[in-house]
Amino acid sequence: MRVALVYFGAGGGHVACARALTESIRRQGRSWQVELIDLDRVLEPIDLVYRLTGLHSKSMYNWALRHGWTFASGPCLAMLHAWIRATHMPSVRLLRRLWRQTRPKPDLVLSVIPHYNRALCESLRAEHPGTPFVTLLTDLADYPPRFWFESQEQHFICGTATAAQQAARLCSPQSQIWRVSGMVLHPGFYDRRRRDIAAERRRLGLDPHLPTALVLFGGYGSNRMLPIARCLRDSRVQVIFLCGRNTRLAERLRRLALPYPAYIHEYTDRVPFYMGLSDFFIGKPGPGAVSEALAMRLPVIVEENYKTMVHERFNVRWIREERMGLVIRGIAELPAAIEELLSPGVREQMLQGIARFNNRAAYEVPAVLEKIVAREAGRSRTAVLPGHIGLV
Hints:
42% of the residues lie in helices and 15% in strands. It is α/β, with parallel strands linked by helices. α1 packs across α17 and α6 crosses α7.
């Protein structure tokens, strides 16, 4: 089976999902040909930022994440959608050319990105009418209008009941909705091999017995990690800081001469390893990092205020309602939140909530894709009714 998997580089979650799904397909022994398509490169001819600076538009988004400038996410999203509507037809033309040049023709096109699914679907229908188009959400819920869901005939794969309900309400009646058990994570997050945690902590220069926090703000880091590092001076914890591709942030953290044990690392593909050495997670409420922490059985502490991006606010409510972590209004509340989390019985209660979150989406999604191709090709007699939600 030939799969064209469309992603882009805004944030790190879409790239991570594409890589995780590719690795899961490989580990399951499926002899599929997966072609990764970077939409940023496809749309370069109509990307004004790229034409003026040589940098893709994603660089502006990633720069804002790196500096913690996320307070204007609502207005910026409205401007982005206005630009996408204005350039819809040129986008469709570029994508039609992509599908014409893609040889051999894919059996299925899978999008792991928001915003551009209308253009992707229309262009594919124009060039290859019988090829199924699937959108896999990398968010816990949609932020309508026209973020993830479009009223067009296609397949949607949703990782939460809320997202599936939104799809049924917002999409075309002919859409087919598939429900999986969470976000797609790299198979490494399911590795339950026993490690000598005390020995590994010593190797990193940490205390083998001190409660350990992991601070992570995605693949591009965030300068928000600097005030977090400072405010933990009097807390009875040690910290693993993963700074992503933010080299300058890592250097600034090292210059702080922190009074508690700390391990500071830049970009790594060993996030499951470092999470396995930690007791809880501190970061922004991104769906990927939060889901990774929960898969590694880590309670989470996230922030909710005017800087929380609009499409991540549902995640905060979900964490609170499911009792899988604590929500703070600002960094000044972090030491008290850590004390609460480490108090007798609280972390154990959270771990019980986390145990209910059995996310196996990385192994479920390939099976869904296989069913979709078989159904569209007429090889299966068990047709899904229009608007039906399939459970895997």
